[in-house]
Amino acid sequence: MTSMDQIIQRQLNPFDPVTLYTINFWQEQQSSSLNVDSIHQNIITNIETVLEQVAQEHHPRTLILTGDSGSGKSYLLGRIKKLFNTKAFFVYVNPWPHSDYIWRHILRQTVDCLMKTPDGQTDSQLLLWLKNLLTFQNSSLLKKITGERRVFIRNLKAIYPSGIYNPNDFFSALYYLLDTEYSPVACEWLRGDDLDEGDLKCLGIKSSIDSEDSAQKIITNLGIISAASQPIVLCFDNLDNIPRLLNGTLDLQALFNVNSSIHTHYPQNFLIIISIITSTWKQNSELIQPADKARINAGYFHLKPITLEQGEAILEARLNPLHSLAKAKPKSAIFPLSKEILEQKFPRGRTLPRNILELGRQEYEQYKLKLLNQTQNSQDFTLETKLATFKLIWQENYKKTQKKISKITNLAAPELIRMLQEVFNALKFQKVKTKLLSGKYASHSLSYQKQNQEPIIGVVWTEDPNMNSFYNTMNACQKVVNQKLCQTLYLLRAAEVGNAENLSHQIYRKIFQGRSKNIHIKPNLESVHFLATYHSLVNAALANELVIEGNIINMKEFEEIIFDSQILNHCSLLQDLSIVVSPDTQKQQKELDKNEIKDFVLNLIRQQSFMERDSIIENTLNQFVKIEHSTIDIIIAELEGENKIKIIAPTSKLDEQLVCFVPG
């Protein structure tokens, strides 16, 4: 075993800024070893009591969870999900793109989360919920799930003779959820996808869930029948990026309209947790109707700063894995930090969890640099490190996005358009407006100008497989062209566009083929990953959760970093829209991919200052799963030749070599 100083030189900083903030608890896997049970324990206990009330009485409960940025609201939601994994089903609801789409967004998020598999289970939340429901209602009913669909529907209609919206279609979807062959399509219907006629026929269902009213009623259905199972916890988080009213204030009223509607039905087995920054709540709460605020019937819970003893426990949990590697354990469980440093930094004896973690990062890094006889005083070096850290954060979020989004239709058209709108705003385009189309599919479109006086460009994004929907979208596009609302119209669609016999295809050809200046682009999944990653970081920036080198990055700074990093230049959809410059040849693309890996390796070493060669290779292979070990060796050699890094003891075995960053 080695000394603690050697371990610190070789290992990654345990307070890695890439992993210091938590957003979606279904994307972030919290380690139980890092939890400090005493932190916010009173709130956890109170929420458990509320959850038990919902389970017993089947009346919805709503609570407000407030706290300053960095107080651990999102992390606490993750802890609650993990602790009460067996008592309830958990749904994380992120910001909705338009207030007139909020019910459909909540339904989509609910079904998506119910399709997740809880810790220690083999079935998804949705299957657990359905099996619990059937077992509770009628033990013999579960035996009939592979039998006749009509018998299944008739049994459930007998159990629920009233109160269920569109029972034939709804119960038919539940029936097919239990059939592995048809369950994916049944889930797509339940989440509100606009299915084609063939899939609807297979499910024995008349039409898709295509309106706010129908989505609201399906959510009510879920609440009613879940009374026979376990509560569903709806967690609303990151509310600083929800739609805004004309006066610039957040449209929180839309959320509270939803909340009040849920409270008007019985039974309803929902616990609704609204997590919001304290200052955001104070600025906007007075704009909410008093009758809707009265529906907050489970109270207000505020996350207070933690004690230094609790902060010390956070540091100890992070450092313990490194201490266990040392031949002789340090006298202090938080070495290379100390209680004196904590007391000096936080003389009032209390602070936020984020501040503790940031102090840990800084002190650990300073100690590591001291071991290397280096300092970090150069302003230029700090700016470089800032950009390097951001690129690592981007890569980590991009990787999570890849796991979350397996196909373009995982996202609804309004969500895709909202993501494009955010990118266009960052690029300082003029007059970026949603709803270029009129009617039902308005939220599938936007328009913009690159600069004032330049032509107006329209974008329509639709992936609905239903040809009737595509026909209606094409009709709406034709109206835009006829009225000359834009000079160029882009259709973004990877799905099929029908054949010559379809009326929709005929309109499509007229608008987007031949000599038309309107263009059809087939977006790829990788481009959607770029847009979704950018969107997740916008959410973080607006919630004051994006921290780089100890600084909270606001939206203006975030957009500047995006511009400097040129990350979005790699998005092929933005290239096809002529927004960024694309590589000219396949060879250039391969070189671009290699440069991305090289950039990652350099940023990683720059951030850590000093690393084991094996650790560099391991982290890079985890980030880029399709590359070869030898490629990383070549990149390390190139970086050393460019005098950007230095290999310590180059004649040693490869697994014993250390690599040091060389400041420019």
Based on secondary structure, the structural category is alpha/beta
Unreliable residue stretches? 377-381
Strand elements, count: 17
CATH architecture of one domain: 3-Layer(aba) Sandwich
What count of helical segments does DSSP give? 26
State the strand order across the main sheet.
Answer: 2-3-4-1-5
The CATH topology name of one domain reads Dna-directed Rna Polymerases I, Ii, And Iii 27 Kd Polypeptide, Chain: A, domain 1
Write down the overall mean pLDDT.
Answer: 89
Name the CATH class of one domain: Alpha Beta
Into which percent range does the helicity of residues fall?
A: 40-55%
What does this entry look like structurally?
This protein is an alpha/beta fold and 664 residues long. Among the domains are: 118-218, no CATH class; 408-523, Dna-directed Rna Polymerases I, Ii, And Iii 27 Kd Polypeptide, Chain: A, domain 1; 590-664, Winged helix-like DNA-binding domain superfamily/Winged helix DNA-binding domain (Arc Repressor Mutant, subunit A, Orthogonal Bundle). 49% of the residues lie in helices and 11% in strands. The chain has 26 helices and 17 strands. The strands form five sheets. A five-stranded parallel sheet has the order 2-3-4-1-5, with helices on both faces. Strands 8-9-10-11-12 form a five-stranded mixed sheet, covered by helices on one side. Helix 4 (102-114) crosses helix 10 (212-225), helix 17 packs across helix 21 and helix 24 crosses helix 26 (629-641). The longest helix is centred in the middle third of the chain and has 26 residues, at 379-404. The protein is globular, with a radius of gyration of 27 Å. The relative contact order is 0.11.
